[in-house]
Amino acid sequence: MLDVALRHAFADFTLQAAFRAPPGVTVLFGRSGSGKTTIVNALAGLLRPDEGRIAVGDRTLLDTRRGIRLPPHRRRIGYIFQEGRLFPHLTVRQNLAYGAWFAPKDAPREETGRIVDLLGIGPLLDRRPATLSGGEKQRVAIGRALLSAPRLILADEPLAALDEARKAEILPYFERLRDEVSVPILYVSHSASEVARLATTVVALEAGRVTAHGPASEVLGDPAILPAGAREAGAVLTARVVRHHEDGLTELDANGLALFLPQVARPPGSAVRVRIAAHEVILAGERPHDLSALNILPGTVREMHPGDGPGVIVALDTAAGRVLARITRRSATAMGLRPGTQVHAIVKSVAVAPGDVGGPGRAGTGGASAP
């Protein structure tokens, strides 16, 4: 369990945040300036907060009331930055060995061979950082952090400096870390797609305060939160791969409702998480016919949240789970929408990007809680 309670005042900003999170990937999610990096720096020991307590399991890193402030080098934290920050004069093998050199002799260690295989960096071992792509550098940086035998890994927007192709390359490796490595990970992001795909637990931040915490499906499916704004609103559904069709579509079963998506690279029987962006959902009062969109999810309006402009976020309860739709107020009025109204959510198959589909990880096994 990661236990964090911090208060720190800057000239124009005060952070006052507290949360507890279980093992897995805990994502700090919010706009720029919401306090994400401040929390990460406090955890790493790079910032001395005015007040607070930080503990990882039974190890206390900070407790201002008791006068405990472990220096950074004694916290056993692996830090993954936006850029790999590898030593340019060392090979990949030597960069990995540098991380292992810092591991305490009595600490449980990961086997170098297992980490190399996990991250797919075996062919890179004799190369130097200048010859690596951005995604390859990040994989090596992750390996170096893991081999230092950390109690906690901090990943501060590790994909922000990568293009979309490199992000797609490295996201599966973060999924494998979440599922196969016991070290807890605190991951900073303002990308709803990354959060939906990776998070075991989401801690939503706004202006230095925790506005929500819990599993990704709960936090991202709550229209009252929207920590990244209405444009990023979207719900997360859990489904299972049924079959791959010859026309390039994959059929999923979302608690009895069929979903058809562009081919999902997972075998039948696999569980997946699917993020459906609110602006890609159309609502209909009656079940439509002769429609090109393949995904039709009947549901009931749960709540409605008007935005600052002409739009409104409509939250629906369906058999597949919570679905959000971003429509105009004019449409909502014309349809007579209100809590309890029966509607049908319509989603085009091609509206769900490959990056919005990932493994379920430990989703649903537990969420964060307030201390």
Could you walk me through the main structural features you see in this protein, from its secondary elements to its overall organization?
It is a single chain. The protein is of the alpha+beta class and 371 residues long. It folds into two domains: 2-214, 3-Layer(aba) Sandwich (Rossmann fold), CATH 3.40.50.300; 234-358, OB fold (Dihydrolipoamide Acetyltransferase, E2P), CATH 2.40.50.100. The protein is built from eight helices and 21 strands. The chain has helices at 36-44, 92-101, 112-119, 134-146, 164-180, 192-198, 216-220, 329-335, and strands spanning 2-9, 14-21, 25-29, 51-56, 59-63, 68-69, 77-80, 152-156, 185-189, 201-206, 209-214, 234-244, 249-254, 257-262, 271-277, 281-284, 295-306, 311-318, 321-328, 342-347, 357-358. The strands form four sheets. A six-stranded mixed beta sheet has the order 7-8-9-3-10-11, sandwiched between helices. A five-stranded antiparallel beta sheet has the order 2-1-4-5-6, covered by helices on one side. Mean pLDDT is 88; it is low at 363-371. Residues 1-232 form the ABC transporter domain. One of its GO terms (cellular component) is membrane. GO terms for molecular function: ABC-type transporter activity; ATP binding; ATP hydrolysis activity; molybdate ion transmembrane transporter activity.
